[in-house]
Amino acid sequence: MIGLIPGWRREPLAATKLCKPRKLSESQFASSNVSTILRRDLICGSISLGAGRMTRSTPGDSSHAISRSTAWLAIMSGGLGICAFGSLIAYVTTPSLQMQTSGGVPPMGALLLTVQFLSFAVQVLMMIPVAIRLFGMSGRRSPAPGRNGIFQGWTILGVVALAGVAILRLAAMVDVAISDILFMLPMGLVGVWLVAVNCKNPIAFPGWMKIWGLVAGLGLVGVCLNFLFNGGLAVFSNDSMAYGNDVNFHIGLGLFGFPGFSLYATWSILLGLRLPGPSNESAGRP
Questions:
Q1: pLDDT tens, residue by residue, 114-135
Q2: CB 240 within 8 A of CB 177
Q3: How far apart (Å, rounded) are the C-alpha atoms in residues 219 and 258?
Q4: What span, in angstroms and rounded, lies between the C-alpha atoms of 96 and 19?
Q5: What φ, ψ does residue 52 adopt, rounded to 5°?
Q6: Cα-atom radius of gyration of the chain, to the nearest Å?
Q7: Which one is predicted more confidently, 28 or 243?
Q8: Rounded CA separation 145/157 (Å)
C-alpha cells in the first residue's frame, strides 16, 4: 500500500527516532505536499486527522496473535480429546450405564455418550486451523517447492480427514441409522497425517515428542484397519449397531484405540505448548 503513494522512497531506519505523531489539518491533507507528510508519518507508524486517529498495524502483531490463538486451539483440542476419552472409558467400564436389554440407555449413560460425541467432534474441528498453521510454518522454513508441495498434500489430507471425522460424529447424533463407528474410517487418515507431521515436522520437536506422535498416529491407523478387517464393515450390510456383540472388534478397538486416542489428545496439548511465536519462527529459519 505504501508503494502506491506518489513520491514515496525508503527512509533510513534511524529517521524513525525523530518522528512524532502529527495531527493533520484538512488544509494540510489537501495540500500538494501531502505525500511528504504521509511518507514521514507512515514511517513513524502513527497518523491522526482531526478527531480521528489512524495507526499502522504491523504484520508482526497480527502474526503473533495468530500464533497464540493457534497454540490455544491445539491445547483446547487436546483437553476436549481427554474429556471425550474419559467419558468413553467411564461408559464402557460401568455396565449399569450401558445400553440395557430393552434397548434403552440410562440417563447418565446417555449424558456420557453425548459429552463424548460433542467433545470429540469439537476436538477435531479445532485441529483444522492448527494443521493449516503448521503448513504455513513449513512454507517459511522450507522454501524448496518440492518439499512444500508434499507437505501441502499431507495438510489437505489432514484437513479433509478431520472435517470428515467431525461430520460423521455429529451425523450419528442426529440420525440413529448412521453408525457411530463410521468416523473410524477418516480417523485412520488423521493418523496418517499425524505420522507425516511428526516425520517431516516444520518445527523442531524433541525426539520423545516425535515418538509420542508417531505412536498416536499409528494407533489411529490401527483403529481404521480394525474397522475394515475386523468386523466394522458389518454396519453396512446389517444395522448400524451390528458391531455391538463382536468381541474381536472390541478387542482390536481397545488395542489400537487406547494408545491412539489418548496419545493424540496429549500430543495436541504438547504441540500447543511448543508452537513458536513469530520471533522464534524467524530465529529457526535455515
A1: 999 999 999 999 999 999 988 8
A2: yes
A3: 8
A4: 73
A5: -85, 165
A6: 26
A7: 243
A8: 18
Three cell numbers, residue 112: 456420557
165-202 pLDDT per residue, tens? 999 999 999 998 999 999 999 999 999 999 999 987 65
CA distance 103 to 201: 47
DSSP 8-state class, residue 13: G
Q: How do the residues of the chain divide into helix, strand and coil, expressed in percent and rounded to 5? A: 70, 5, 25
Distance CA 46, CA 236 (A): 64
Q: Which three three-digit cell numbers place residue 50?
A: 482531526
Amino acid symbol at 54? M
Look at residue 143 in the predicted model and tell me its pLDDT. 54
Cell numbers for 97, please give them: 450405564
Q: How far apart are CA 252 and CA 106, in angstroms?
A: 26
- What are the residue ranges spanned by the domains of the chain? 2-55, 62-283
User: Cα 159 vs. chain centroid, distance in angstroms?
Assistant: 9
Mean pLDDT for the chain overall: 79
Three-state secondary-structure class, residue 235: helix
Q: Count CB atoms within 10 A of the CB of residue 183.
A: 26
| DSSP-H helix ranges across 201-246 | 207-229, 234-237
